[in-house]
Design brief:
about 20% helix; about 45% strand; alpha+beta; about 150 residues
Length: about 150
Amino acid sequence: MFDEFGFSLVLDRGAYLTSLPGNTATQGMVQLEYKGVNVILSWVPVDGVTSQGLVSGTFAMLQDSQPGLTLETVSEADITVGLEPALVLGFKSIGAGNTIVGGGLIGAWNCLDEQISFTMTVTGEDAAVVQLRFTRLVDNFSCAAV
């Protein structure tokens, strides 16, 4: 379990988490290697931030950081993380020769009691594995530390 910064995330065996230096309860980022996917979970103060803005900003950053790939959105859905409404964007990564080389999901939600917004990005080569890992992580996320 990871619960250092006021929220908690139950992790399965085989999940390797790296907490970046400088993280606080109000802002930070952790990276996670988890059975075939890469995960980035970041958090910032709510301060007028919307889930739509977080998702679109994260998608734009991913596009800019991978100039050799084209990212194409394939889905958008409303879900809940705990009791909080969340937005999820699905995308595919297209490489040379117009071949799909992977994809991912970007989810964002606000923990209103804590006044913190979260963004989770899960990427990998296999869409089914990405979906399973994303679902498992959001199902095991809690806005409050345990």
